[in-house]
């Protein structure tokens, strides 16, 4: 093959994020992910995973897309693109939702925050350019869409995250905003760290209490240093991010979710509230309403696997001689010291407790359909005890 | 006893016609936390380059190839209960299997320790 041919098919170059050299200096092993260099691990996935469950882990998720939507009736306009209740989203509140195509297939999952004068969206890194194109295509020209490409995004996750963050001495940047430890799960507010503005939400992707912090690129290194100077906090790589979210039963776009699957089948019906179910009026509503009425042919399920051999993405799921599904995420659970998986199976085999088999290298592993999360969520909600 | 290395990051200790095979410290470091090792059964015959074992880290499964041809005479039972031995003692207690060599001339194609060190040094991280 000539070198010209190779150049023609070469992928776009992997880009460096604002914390690139910070990760390298701290011994992060960098891999290409969603078009960027990110650390897969520092000291080891299991140690980082367990540290996050017991203390607090700092994740660089700056590859994700941070978008601002503003303009008249922005909530109503966005509701035409997704099944969530955005009109009813009060200022300072966050909602999980999904972008759907005409057939009801999932284009992405995302978080939407009502920031008062605009909506703030966090979308997946690998899909952000397609999401921007989709939003632009379907939103009226009067709605402004800004991609905050000069902002980094950090996630501070774990039961001690609140102690570490509170120690930075942040001040609310708006009247009526509580101290950062006063935020409840799925609430967000603006803060100042000295002079530096931070957009902080109590949310995350690990099943633990924690925060996500939108920060200007020029401030992110100082913030990461200040957080990692706290005794509770260590930097954590993508490997543990994946094992943590799998234990938490949270789907990963591009693996457990993709345009071939629907919201209801994915078990994400909580993201389609009553009004939207009844009224429809969003792209893909027909599929959602049909599956709400008739059920979906396939379902996303959790699978507990006997023995120690993990089943990976792509492994087929069987009952006797019939193939009834596929694993879409699988690995070893550091918290449970056992292999766990997420997959899609025929609806007839989706009931918790159903015994199935997963094929790995010609062997059949015994697996049981299990309710998710595999490890209980420990979100901090208002009125709930923190301890 | 002499120790040889392969460009697939395996080490081979040869004593008489018995070769003990494991993965190198560099390999375990690259794989990360190992949670499962699938070992070959005694009596299986491998040609050089055959898939002989599988090592599963938290994030992925990787094949271990037979570095030389031979018949499996023993697999390391300790790895079944404690796969993390491959991380903690990759070039000692964390060995994978022992082969009875069928063609000792294949050893000539392997690296010695100095050559392997150079090989690893030349790899981009």
Estimated helix fraction of chain B: 10-25%
Summarize the main sheet of chain B: 6 strands, antiparallel
Low-confidence stretches of chain B: none
User: For the CA atoms, what is the radius of gyration of chain B?
Assistant: 13 Å
The number of distinct β-strands of chain A equals 20
Distance between the termini of chain A: 63 Å
Dominant shape of chain B: globular
Counting helices, strands and paired strands, the structural category of chain B is alpha+beta
pLDDT average of chain A, as an integer?
95
Helix content of chain A: 10-25%
Q: Major sheet of chain A: size, sense and barrel closure?
A: 7 strands, mixed
Read across the widest sheet of chain A, the strand sequence of neighbours is: 10-11-12-13-9-3-14
Give start-end ranges of low-pLDDT stretches of chain A. 1-6
Could you provide a short overview of the structure?
Chain A is built from ten helices and 20 strands.
List the helices and strands and how they pair.
The complex is a heterodimer of chains A (387) and B (125).
Chain A: H1 3-9, H2 20-25, E1 29-33, E2 36-41, H3 45-54, E3 56-60, E4 65-70, H4 74-79, E5 94-100, E6 106-114, E7 119-123, H5 128-138, E8 144-147, E9 151-157, H6 161-166, E10 171-172, E11 188-193, E12 196-201, E13 210-216, H7 220-228, E14 233-235, H8 238-247, H9 274-279, H10 285-294, E15 298-305, E16 316-319, E17 322-333, E18 338-346, E19 355-360, E20 363-370
Helix pairs in contact in A: 3-8
Chain B: E1 2-5, E2 10-15, E3 18-23, H1 25-31, E4 34-38, E5 45-46, E6 51-57, E7 61-65, E8 70-75, H2 78-81, H3 85-88, E9 97-101, H4 113-121
Antiparallel strand pairs in B: 1-2, 2-3, 3-9, 4-6, 5-8, 6-7, 8-9
Structural description of this entry:
The complex is a heterodimer of chains A (387) and B (125). Helices cover 21% and strands 32% of the residues of chain A. Chain A is an alpha+beta fold and 387 residues long. Chain A has a 7-stranded mixed beta sheet, sandwiched between helices. Chain A is globular. The model of chain A is unreliable at 1-6 (pLDDT under 50). Chain B has a 6-stranded antiparallel beta sheet. Chain B has a 3-stranded antiparallel beta sheet with strand order 4-6-7. Chain B contains 4 helices and 9 strands; from the N terminus they run E-E-E-H-E-E-E-E-E-H-H-E-H. Chain B starts with a strand and ends with a helix. Chain B has helices spanning 25-31, 78-81, 85-88, 113-121; strands spanning 2-5, 10-15, 18-23, 34-38, 45-46, 51-57, 61-65, 70-75, 97-101. Chain B is of the alpha+beta class and 125 residues long. Chains A and B meet through helix 3 and helix 8 of A and strand 4 and strand 6 of B.
């Amino acid at each position: 093959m000539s070198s010209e041919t190779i150049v023609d098919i070469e992928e776009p170059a992997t880009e460096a994020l604002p914390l690139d050299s910070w990760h390298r200096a701290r011994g992060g092993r960098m891999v290409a992910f969603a078009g960027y260099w990110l650390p897969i691990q520092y000291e080891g996935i299991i140690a980082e995973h367990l540290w996050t469950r017991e203390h607090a882990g700092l994740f660089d998720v700056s590859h994700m897309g941070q978008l601002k939507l503003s303009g008249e009736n922005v909530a109503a306009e966005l509701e035409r693109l997704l099944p969530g209740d955005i009109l009813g989203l009060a200022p300072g509140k966050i909602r999980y939702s999904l972008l759907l195509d005409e057939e009801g297939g999932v284009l992405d999952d995302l978080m939407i925050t009502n920031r008062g004068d605009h909506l703030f969206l966090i979308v997946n890194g690998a899909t952000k350019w397609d999401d921007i194109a989709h939003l632009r295509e379907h939103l009226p020209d009067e709605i402004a869409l800004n991609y905050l490409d000069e902002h980094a995004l950090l996630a501070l996750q774990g039961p001690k995250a609140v102690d570490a963050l509170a120690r930075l001495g942040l001040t609310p940047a708006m009247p009526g905003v509580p101290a950062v430890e006063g935020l409840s799960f799925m609430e967000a507010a603006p803060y100042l760290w000295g002079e530096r503005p931070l957009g902080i939400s109590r949310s995350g992707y690990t099943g633990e209490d924690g925060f996500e912090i939108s920060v200007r690129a020029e401030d992110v290194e100082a913030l990461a240093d200040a957080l990692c100077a706290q005794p509770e906090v260590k930097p954590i790589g993508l490997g543990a991010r994946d094992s943590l979210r799998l234990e938490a039963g949270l789907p990963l776009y591009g693996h457990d979710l993709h345009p071939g699957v629907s919201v209801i089948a994915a078990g994400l019906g909580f993201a389609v509230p009553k009004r939207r179910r009844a009224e429809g009026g969003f792209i893909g509503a027909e599929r959602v309403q049909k599956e709400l009425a008739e059920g979906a042919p396939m379902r996303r399920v959790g699978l507990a696997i006997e023995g120690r051999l993990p089943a990976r993405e792509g492994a087929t799921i069987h009952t006797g001689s019939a193939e009834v599904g596929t694993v879409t995420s699988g690995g070893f659970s550091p918290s449970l010291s056992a292999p766990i998986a997420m997959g899609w199976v025929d609806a007839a085999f989706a009931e918790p407790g159903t015994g199935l088999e997963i094929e790995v290298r010609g062997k059949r592993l015994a697996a049981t359909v299990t309710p998710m999360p595999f490890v209980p969520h420990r979100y901090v909600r208002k009125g709930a005890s923190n301890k | 006893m002499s120790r040889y290395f392969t460009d697939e990051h395996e080490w081979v200790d040869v004593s008489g016609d018995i070769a003990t095979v494991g993965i190198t410290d560099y390999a375990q470091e690259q794989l990360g936390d190992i949670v499962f090792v699938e070992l070959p059964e005694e009596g299986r015959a491998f040609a050089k380059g055959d898939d002989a074992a599988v090592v599963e880290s938290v994030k992925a499964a990787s094949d271990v190839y037979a570095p030389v041809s031979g018949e499996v005479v023993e697999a390391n039972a300790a790895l079944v209960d404690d796969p993390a031995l491959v991380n903690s003692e990759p070039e000692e207690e964390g060995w994978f299997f022992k082969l009875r060599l069928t063609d000792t001339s294949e050893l000539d194609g392997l690296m010695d320790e100095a050559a392997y060190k150079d090989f690893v040094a030349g790899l981009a991280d």
